[in-house]
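Researcher: We're teaching a course module on how sequence relates to structure. For the next exercise, students receive a sequence and then see the predicted structure as tokens, so they can try to spot secondary structure elements on their own. Here is the exercise chain.
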Amino acid sequence: MYLMSGGPTVNFNLAIEPWIPVVNWDGVAQRASIRGTLINAPSISEVHDANSPINTVGLIRMLMAFVYRSHETLDRKAWDRIWSAGAFDKGTMEAYLQSVHDRLWMQHDDHPFLQDPQAAQMGTESPVTRLNVARAYGHNSTLSDWTMSDTRPEVPWADAAVMLVGHLGYDCAKAAGGGREQHSRTPLFSAATVIRGRNLFETLMLNIIPIDKEAGLPVPTNGEPDIPAWERDPATRTQANKKKLVRRPISGYVDALTRRSRGILLSGTDSHATACWYDHGEGMEKPETRTYIDPMAATAKARSSSDYFPIKLRARKALWRDLTNITWVKPDGSKKRRACLAFHHLFNLIHEQAVDFKVINADVYGMTFSQASPMLWRHERMSIPASVLADDAAMMRADSAALLADDVWWRVLYPTAKTARSVFNPTLPPKKGKPELPGKQPELPGKPMQDAIETTYWRSLNGAYQRYLSDLASEYENADEVWRAIVEEAAINAWGKCHVMLGFSARALRAVAKAESTLHRNLPAVMAGEATPKPSEQEDDDVEGE
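Model: And here is the predicted structure for the students to work with:
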């Protein structure tokens, strides 16, 4: 920390200090500055924070904002020019970084990077680890942390910067649920999909959607300048309105990528951050929670309304089941689901032969929750042949294949397991002296068996679906028949392996016999495409707002 000549006290400039976790082509992990990361992007394999996938996607979005902002207008012509060069122009990057150099200090008296100096007066003091959702703080549940919430470890400024970017970029509270009326503090709160190139340069460019003001792409503006948070002064607040979110509509994609969603101010020594003040941030204007969809999010239409909501991640739902929902740019404009906007851009590039990928790879980042408690970090990688992605007929077959597997679970295996559970232990009357509570039904035994059937069934299809996509790419004529046989065999094997969990009592054998009649009745009907009723318990709970 030092005092600039005639200026404020500053410390740790992110343009020149190594802090971004990157992996080079040789597999060596190291830290790089913003300048080094962007200029050397072709020789960097990826940005990867081992502590949290949310931090990783936050850093990627931040770097995208630097690329957008360093060019006067990054339209399609500018995009083609940069892509053809194979690297970001060093002079362009350095000119912009020099122009905002004074805004990239982690400690600065007037405008610290992505922070709000007013938080020291308006907010509450907390340990720096509050910025890490996996760490203990207050009454919040954690993933795997056994430290005391009042423990105040010192965090190196490089780590604190990574945590700050990730914390501001993802709303874990909204991702946990909370219903349709609860509005998000950040633009991103669902599964975030990042198309992955052969190096960091390609990754950033494939996710940077050219600006088209007439079409309102990638994000419509509201007349205000589309500038990043580090160029924008925090909103002025007073003691009277500090508890109210200063909601501001999104003014463009750069604004969305760098939203100052919370009022945070870090403090510490020359080498470590030791505390943070935490307060309300800009939030998002209420109407934006209904209309704004982040370009990195795939969406689905709610059954009960005409609104579209981002697709969630679920702990027990494999990502391949949503692969077509995330990637398929449907020719009808999508009546039910919409792919990520970056895939719309990629779809056009493939058809124009502007890119030469044989396989399209993508990373999906996020968290899974049980009610409001975090359960798992999620970072999954998916691949899809480019020839399949560009062929509507092939994508329709891939979508139908995933729907068939889903139908077999909901119309065959789920009713089969439910039948076995109900026969094994029918609803019993309440115990004497303990009247049954209104609306409360006793839990049926056999739930571990049902969970085991579900896990076994879907796990056996994980690799098979990827092989099916490869068969589509190679135009294997029997691909659909092979897939149907695999699904049918997976259903029979899942039931056969797991029903023994009920035991071998007379009641268990009776339950198995009754359930198998359901299995043998429903499975041929579903495989033949005949309509069978879905259970009323089915919920399309991968959609936000359902």
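Model: If you want an answer key for the exercise: The two ends are 50 Å apart (CA to CA). The CA atoms of residues 66 and 93 lie 8 Å apart.
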